[in-house]
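[job 4471] stage=fold_predict status=RUNNING
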Amino acid sequence: MANYIYELKDKVRDYECDLQGIVNNANYQHYLEHARHEFLLSKNISFAELHDKGTDAVVARLTMQFKVPLKSGDEYVTRIRIKKDGIKYKFLQDIFRLPDEKLCIRAEVDSVCLVNGRLSDCEELNEKFAPFFEE
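[job 4471] inference complete, writing structure tokens
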């Protein structure tokens, strides 16, 4: 079992589904991003404050493996792990349907920082994320 550092529960809304009655693939990106933002807020990390200091964290790459679709009304939980790879922060995110814990999606999101407009390491995020990095 993975050592998740954060989880966020939510529910599928009707308008997120396509004609097949399943969540449209693009909406999973919203689920993943929302969970990452809530994780950051839980650690008192503000995108607005980082930006005001000249640092912008951006997604550089995203891969998703679709396993089992979510449907309207399904409850789910997004769980997060994080690794450091050079200047990249790798968010490893899994979405599970509740209550049966079926894996719906496995994603890897590579995020990098632009510090004063230049691709760079972010010491503030390194410090705040250090306790959570996987080997």
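[job 4471] summary: Residues 6-134 form a domain with the Thiol Ester Dehydrase; Chain A fold (CATH 3.10.129.10).
[job 4471] exit 0
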